[in-house]
Design goal:
This protein is α/β, with parallel strands linked by helices. 48% of the residues lie in helices and 16% in strands. It contains 18 helices and 12 strands. It has a 7-stranded mixed beta sheet, with helices on both faces. The longest helix has 25 residues. The structure holds NADPH dihydro-nicotinamide-adenine-dinucleotide phosphate.
């Protein structure tokens, strides 16, 4: 059995009941075969793949808090510090009832390569809790965030581990967590990113993941002789990533006709109204059923269905495993030419394979959604030099980073004989830098 297969088997045996983590490891390691085969003797001796698939540490803790009725509630908190070979751990905090250790590990593992691809000095980590901010009062969210940070605060720091937002963790949650960290440590430092603009946040961070997704998609299309302007786009999700993906796609001349949430989806033949979307989701924190009140021409459907709509470009921006094989088949049948992942691992392995076999350009999340973490790293730089850059400066840097990421993965894919396979390219380009750093740092 080859080294890659041995390590995949070992990961599955040693991490039972963590299918998302197995899926992520499989996807990455299988596409690294060309590099691993070229360096097998050294990698085996140094146990490089065993080390890179085992987190530096996994922290799991109790998060007790008091709800508005005076009842004590208990959630589970996590932080997985996966790999700091090229910089302090960096990765978001997910607050969602589906969160478990396997999900956090899959996200942390992906984050290592994503962060490396940005070319900025950040390692990989991820955290979160099974707490559900939906339907909670601001006071309850604050009580949870303070309790969560009371424990997490022992393990993080501006040069150690710098968490950020993710599903369920937006500006409100980051604010409460930052306040508690400051209070406990007696220190104002850039320990979290995605902070508010009045206390160390970066202009452009809110938009970064969605905008970055479009900068990379645009470059990918351009390099394949296709224009984004005039194309029809389907977006899933209606959170941070989705909203700003819709905004930038429309600024670049495309028409976005769908958005979704966990209960249903909207089809707007005239193009999604971003101002209405922001008001519903960011201001009212309401459901998408309200969208029809703003746009009577639109349709609301319960359940899944975004990928059944005819489009040129599909941008999954909600959550993992939301684009299945049957969806990929519908996209191909409807003439879709490109899929770029705004969410982390939204496309299943079978769906990805089907899309690639059918010549759909496919940009994996670790490259396509790296704009968020890249801008977080820019926030860290601004915090370190105690300066704030203008929106234009941050946005220009983001564009440069995303264009550069695309060319790095395009080049890596070519170098190893997989031209046009951006999954292989992204994994190899991200891995090579981390592997070189790990080998240089000895057995640790
Ligand atoms: P938000 O919480 O802002 O939005 C998430 C969206 O996805 C909501 O519309 C939500 O619907 C929907 N969703 C969540 N879970 C499910 C589910 N199980 N089934 C169907 N829909 C679901 O999160 P973000 O926009 O920040 O994150 C979206 C994705 O992008 C995640 O995979 C995240 O890891 C990834 N990402 C985020 C970055 C960032 O900077 N924010 C950076 C890089 C990646 P509802 O409102 O009904 O829950």
């Amino acid at each position: 059995m080859g080294y890659v297969d041995e390590v995949i088997e070992r990961v599955i045996a040693k991490n039972p009941g963590e299918p998302e983590f197995h899926q992520a490891v499989k996807e990455v390691l299988e596409s690294l075969r060309p590099v691993v085969e070229a360096n097998e003797e050294v990698y085996r001796r140094e146990a490089l793949l065993e080390r890179i698939t085992e987190p530096d540490r996994q922290i799991k803790f109790r998060v007790p808090w008091v709800d508005d009725k005076g009842q004590v509630q208990v959630n589970v908190g996590y932080r997985v510090q996966f790999n700091n070979a090229i910089g302090p751990y960096k990765g978001g905090l997910r607050l969602h009832p589906s969160v478990n250790i396997g999900i956090i590990k899959f996200l942390g593992f992906e984050q290592i390569f994503k962060n490396s691809l940005t070319s900025l000095p950040i390692g990989g980590g991820k955290g979160g809790s099974d707490f559900d901010p939906k339907g909670k009062s601001d006071r309850e969210v604050m009580a949870f965030c303070q309790s969560y940070m009371t424990e997490l605060g022992k393990y993080i720091g501006a040069d150690v581990d710098v968490p950020a937002g993710d599903i369920g963790t937006g500006a409100r949650e980051i604010g409460y967590m930052f306040g508690q960290y400051k209070r406990i440590q007696g220190m104002f430092e850039g320990v979290l990113t995605g902070k508010g603009l009045t206390y160390g946040g970066s202009l452009g961070r809110t938009q970064a993941t969605g905008y970055g997704l479009l900068y990379l998609t645009n470059e990918m299309l351009k390099c394949n002789g296709i224009e984004l302007a005039g194309k029809t786009v389907c977006v899933s999700g209606s959170g941070n990533v989705a909203t700003y993906a819709v905004e930038k796609a429309q600024q670049l001349g495309a028409k976005v006709v769908t958005v979704s949430d966990s209960t249903g989806w909207v089809y707007d033949p005239d193009g999604i109204d971003v101002a209405a979307l922001k008001e519903i989701k960011e201001v009212k924190r309401a459901r998408l059923t309200e969208y029809k009140n703003y746009r009577p021409n639109s349709e609301y459907h319960e359940g899944r269905g975004v990928w059944s709509v005819k489009c040129d470009v599909a941008l999954p921006c909600a959550t993992q495993n939301e684009l299945l094989l049957e969806d990929a088949k519908m996209l191909v049948a409807n003439g879709c030419i490109a899929v770029a992942e705004g969410a982390n691992m939204p496309t299943t392995l079978e769906a990805t394979k089907y899309l690639q076999e059918n010549k759909v350009l496919f940009a994996p999340g670790k490259a396509a959604n790296a704009g968020g973490v890249a801008t977080s790293a820019l926030e860290m730089s601004q915090n370190s030099e105690r300066l704030s850059w203008s929106f234009e400066e941050v946005d220009a840097k983001l564009q440069g980073i995303m264009v550069n990421i695309f060319h790095n993965l395009d080049d890596a894919a070519r170098k190893y004989g997989h031209e046009g396979d951006y999954v292989v390219g992204a994994n190899i380009a991200g891995f090579e830098k981390v592997a070189t750093a790990m080998l240089a740092q000895g057995v640790c």
